[in-house]
Every structure is written in C-alpha cells, then in structure tokens.
Amino acid sequence: MDPSPETHPKTTLSRRRIGVFGGTFDPPHIGHLVAAINARQALDLDVVLLVVANVPWQKVGHRTVTAAEDRLAMMRAAVGDRDDLEVSDIEVRRGGDSYTADTLGELLDREPDAELFVILGRDAAAGLASWERHDEVVSQAQLVVVDRPGPPVELDRRYRWLRVDIPELEISSTELRDRVAAGLSIDYLTPSAVVDLIAARGLYRNAGAG
Ligand code: NAP
Fold first, then answer.
1. This model's pTM is above 0.85
2. Is the dihedral of CA 146, 109, 72, 101 positive or negative?
3. Which end of the chain is more exposed for a tag (fewer CB within 10 A), N or C?
C-alpha cells in the first residue's frame, strides 16, 4: 500500500461521501471550520460531520475539559445553518470515553452504503497509532490529513492517506482559552456567535480551568 499522501481519486459512485471531523473543540475556532470546509470541497464530500467528543480520554488528567453540552452548543453556534457542515452529538449521546472506532461503526450501522472519510489535523494524524482500535478506524474509513502546503507531515506508513492542503491558521483552542482567561479579545478568531456564548456562559474565565 502506498504510504505517501496523495490527492484524492474522483469516484463516480453514488454512495454518500461523509467526512468525519472529530474534536474536543474546546472551544471551536476558525481553524476547525476552515479545515472542515476545505476537506469537503477538495474531496467532493456530501457533508462533513463535526463530531464533538464526549470524553476525550487522552486529554483527561492533563487539563479540565469543558462540559460536553457547552462544547456542543459552541460548535452548533460556530457552524450555524449550513447544508454542507453538520454538528454531530453521536459521541455525547453515547456517553463515556469517545472512541472514533465506535463512532464510525455507529455511522455505518445507520447508513451502510456511506463512504466515510476521517479528517485529521497534522498532530491528530501523527498520533493515530495511539488510538483505541486504530486498525478498526482504518478499515472503516479513508484517512485524510489536512495540512499546510509544503512538505507533508510524517504519517504512519502502514496506512494510505489522502492529503488536503489548507491555508495555515496558527490558532488553537488553548490560545483562545488563555486569551479569555486573560481578558483578551477572541473576536474574529471564532465566529461571533461562539464569542457571545462563551461570554454568556462565563466559560474559560479562570486560567487553567475548562
Ligand atoms: P481538537 O484538539 O479539538 O482538534 C480537532 C481537530 O482540529 C484536530 O484534528 C486538530 O488537528 C484540528 N485543528 C486544530 N487546530 C487547527 C488549525 N488551526 N487548523 C487546522 N486544523 C486544526 O481535538 P482532539 O482532541 O485532537 O481530537 C481529534 C479527534 O481525534 C477526535 O475525534 C478524537 O475523539 C479523536 N481521537 C480518538 C482517539 C481514539 O482512541 N479513538 C484518541 C485520540 C483522539 P491537530 O491535532 O493537528 O491540532
């Protein structure tokens, strides 16, 4: 199997092509949205699901994670009303630790003909081997890495990857949390509806807390 990233092959099949872009999204920001929308366009996907993790088990113990309901509400506010991006609560409803293998299985149970594309940023892609049942993930979906133009990120060479170049936006959820805690503006780093929700719910006011 060719381990190097490649541009995607066009398909003439009519199976629904569904992007699965998961995250803690604590909080969501324009980097997430730009990645999702560019993957959708580049791979000719019917929709990209923004899957909000219930318990991002690899982050637990490292920092306080904001309540899933708040993160879900923020992602809904971020996306607004679009046909090509859809916020998914599949992991929040399932409860417990969030494993992508379970999510893909549930999506395929609902829509067995769907063609799934797991979309990952460069760090998430580099950490795939640490995931619970990552072989199951790879067997259920095509892996996609969204990366800045230029030399590709080092990827697990056992798997076949598609690569989508996206504009580089040096912005992270950590930076947004820190800015809110410091009383700095996050305007334009995330959609205004998210800025308003963070203020209304009093999120991220305490440094180091969720
Ligand atoms: P996150 O920090 O909220 O990030 C979500 C995604 O957005 C990541 O792919 C991230 O890539 C990307 N991203 C962040 N900032 C970006 C920017 N400025 N431009 C472009 N892309 C950007 O979520 P996460 O906690 O890493 O989780 C990612 C997914 O992996 C989730 O679905 C989670 O459930 C899954 N996961 C699964 C397992 C498992 O065992 N099944 C284990 C770990 C994670 P970067 O990582 O490159 O920032």
1. yes
2. negative
3. N
